[in-house]
Amino acid sequence: IYTPIVVFLAFCIATLPFFFADSYVFSEWLYRALIFLVISCPCALVISIPLGYFGGIGAASRNGILFKGSNFLDLMTKVNTVVMDKTGTLTEGVFKVQEVITFNGFPEQEWLPMAAALEASSTHPIAQAVVEYAGEKIRNIKPGNLEEISGHGIKGIIEGKEVLAGNLKFMDKMGIAVDAKVRQVAETIVVVAVDGNLAGYITIADQIKADSKDAVKALHEKNIKTVMLSGDKQAVVDRVSNTLGIDAAFGDLLPEHKVKKVEELKEDPSRVVAFVGDGINDAPVLALSDVGIAMGGLGSDAAIETADIIIQTDHPSKIARAIDIGKATNRIVWQNIGFAFGLFILSFCKEA
């Protein structure tokens, strides 16, 4: 509708004065009609602003960062709180079994393969570490009645025995008596019970990513508050948090608890919250946050689909880089707006 009307009015400006003006010079009125077209159709704005954002998205892609829309470039410039998951985001997410401890006379060669057979049905990195450690021992074990409880563990029936594998919260939930020594272990552990009795536990270790400390430092330099949320026990979370210098850290969280923590942060209207995660359990928090950022390498399909921004290289230092690219893009877009309006003003002045 707009374009035909503008073209018609320009045609009228060029031709109608012939019937009303005392001295009609076609070239002068044609020039005025062309000026009207330039001003009425602000090509400088229409072209330069989208191209500015396209350039920002392209620059981010060259840095291993995928923005799903130009609006997220603007949102990143406003972020003042970055909430991060621990496993797979700040740590490598590649777990290794460090130690296997047995209880109540259960032979390791009996309960460990059963626990690994249960964990083989899970995609969690800790579960995969147990499966890798057990190796070929689980080949002929076929668990039945499998049930995975999110944030707790997994249970099933093997050779007529009920086998449980998970964290201490899972054991408490299922009414398993756990030795006090087990509760004092600071590392991440997988506790195993067979037919209602504690069989043993497996100690799991994960490594902090090489650039995690630099990532947190870069965010602090931008006056951005950092928070870490994790399902791991608080002792493990505190150790990672102290190493990286994170402002606040919360452990022993289920997926719904992470959602609640982010909701609490967002109650402050001055906060613009970005959440960084990689697991399937992080999808609700990624959707809730103002900006959801997923790790694209280790990240689950659900997290990648839900997120607004994807870090393809899994480097947390890219979070600060994404903010820098957003600010640079925003600055260039406003420069383009200024130049465009300057062009319009010059056109008016020349005509006057």
Describe this protein's structure:
The protein is of the alpha/beta class and 352 residues long. Helix content is 49%, strand content 20%. It contains 15 helices and 13 strands. The strands form two sheets. The protein has a seven-stranded mixed sheet with strand order 1-13-12-11-2-9-10, with helices on both faces. The protein has a six-stranded antiparallel sheet with strand order 3-8-7-6-5-4. The radius of gyration is 30 Å and the shape is elongated. It starts with a helix and ends with a helix.
Briefly, what is this?
The chain has 352 residues and is an alpha/beta fold.
Helix/sheet category: alpha/beta
Helical segment tally? 15
Instruction: Report the span from N to C terminus.
Output: 29 Å
Determine the strand fraction and express it as a percent band: 15-25%
Mean pLDDT: 88
Number of strands: 13
Radius of gyration: 30 Å
Binned, the helix content reads 40-55%
Give the helix/strand layout.
Elements: H1 2-15, H2 17-20, H3 26-40, H4 43-62, E1 65-67, H5 70-76, E2 81-85, E3 96-102, H6 108-119, H7 125-134, E4 144-149, E5 153-158, E6 161-166, H8 168-173, H9 180-183, E7 188-194, E8 197-205, H10 212-221, E9 225-229, H11 234-244, E10 248-250, H12 255-266, E11 273-277, H13 283-288, E12 291-295, H14 301-306, E13 309-311, H15 318-351
Parallel strand pairs: 2-9, 2-11, 9-10, 11-12, 12-13
Antiparallel strand pairs: 1-13, 3-8, 4-5, 5-6, 6-7, 7-8
Helix pairs in contact: 1-3, 3-15, 4-15, 5-15, 6-7
